[in-house]
Specification:
Layout (H helix, E strand, L loop, with lengths): L7 H11 L7 H25 L5 H33 L8 H9 L10 H4 L9 H9 L8 H24 L5 H15 L2 E4 L7 H14 L5 H14 L1 H4 L13 H13 L6 H11 L3 E5 L5 E3 L10 E6 L8 E7 L6
Parallel strand pairs: 2-4
Antiparallel strand pairs: 1-5, 2-3, 4-5
């Protein structure tokens, strides 16, 4: 009996996936991180302007919000770089270390997002010129370490900021904890368990990969899932274009959409409901999205109602910077 020949379309797709470039280089990752830091600086500047002089309550609210934003961004970026290094090795990470260290040595008061002293400045009294000369002459000729002084001032200012923010945060509701408990309660009712997924920009795809392995014993990875998602969306642009907007809030043009799909495949840009819909169509399975405060979203349920759904949880507050997805593993599934 003749052997069954492989499907040429499938073989070609596998070759394309196998030869695809790395999703994001370390340099690209750090470049994106710098852009995120610049964006945060712009946001902090806008927040500063909302705290009018003399309004101590508003000033404290802004202080707490800025500290939280900085903490969350640093945590997110640290997790992403740690995940990259764990996958690709740390040998390429030493190139920019010295440059980054030198940049960090420079103290700039503008580096501190909110400083209650700068918001209500009280200038220090000027010393008489003769007194300044006496102080300089009595210094024993030893030149002060200005670099160390700058670092000390910066460290102290940031510590003051953190202490103040922690005092403010102590009386606020921890939405991360509220959301976590709510989703765990939903998971218990659905007889599933939340499987934490690394917050590295690929969480949606890693969650789906885990679900495919759990329910269908299909082994795949982020690169393959991003590739097939981009290909499906490009081939069905009419199904997605009306629901996507560009950075100005307008509906995407075909050129915008092509760029969107290119970034989707080749970078660590976050995914959302459009990508989940594409994945459900590619793998011909429903995808359920469980979230706090809203009914479960069931994508392609009407099309593939006889198939076991892939189940993920959607978190708005876990990291504070945007969407995060975890996998919801069935409690009675022995496949781990």
């Amino acid at each position: 009996m003749d052997q069954e020949q492989a499907n040429p379309d499938t073989t070609q797709k596998q070759e394309e996936v196998a030869t695809a470039v790395l999703i994001e280089t370390l340099e690209e990752l750090r470049t994106r991180h710098k852009k995120e830091q610049r964006d945060l600086t712009a946001k902090v500047t806008a927040l500063k302007k909302t705290a009018t002089k003399g309004d101590k309550k508003k000033k404290k609210e802004v202080l707490a919000e800025v500290a939280q934003l900085e903490h969350v961004l640093n945590q997110q970026q640290g997790s992403e770089e740690k995940a990259w290094l764990a996958e690709h090795g740390s040998s390429t990470a030493s190139g920019g270390a010295q440059e980054e260290e030198e940049e960090e040595d420079d103290f700039d008061p503008n580096d501190i997002p909110i400083d209650h002293l700068t918001m209500d400045p009280t200038p220090a009294p000027k010393q008489p010129k003769q007194q300044q000369q006496q102080q300089q002459s009595s210094g024993g000729g030893k030149k002060p370490n200005r670099q160390k002084a700058r670092k000390d001032r910066k460290a102290q200012a940031l510590k003051d900021l953190q202490d103040e923010a922690e005092k403010e945060a102590a009386g606020q509701v921890n939405m991360n904890e509220v959301e976590r408990k709510a989703i765990e309660e939903l998971a218990t009712v659905m007889n599933v368990t939340v499987k934490d997924v690394t917050a590295d920009g690929h969480c949606l795809y890693n969650a789906i990969a885990d679900q495919l392995s759990q329910h269908y014993q299909t082994e795949t990875d982020v690169k393959a899932l991003r590739h097939e998602t981009a290909e499906y969306m490009k081939g069905h642009s009419d199904d997605f274009l009306p629901f996507l907007t560009n950075k100005h809030g307008d509906m995407m043009s075909p050129e915008d959409f092509n760029e969107y799909c290119k970034d989707l495949e080749s970078t660590a840009v976050w995914g959302g409901q459009p990508e989940l819909l594409a994945l459900s169509r590619v793998h011909k399975v429903p995808i359920w999205v469980v979230q706090m405060g809203s009914p479960t979203v069931k994508l392609s349920e009407d099309v593939y109602s006889s198939k076991t759904p892939l189940m993920v949880s959607y978190h708005r507050h876990m990291y504070g910077l945007g969407e995060h997805y975890n996998s919801l593993r069935p409690n009675n599934n022995k496949h781990v």
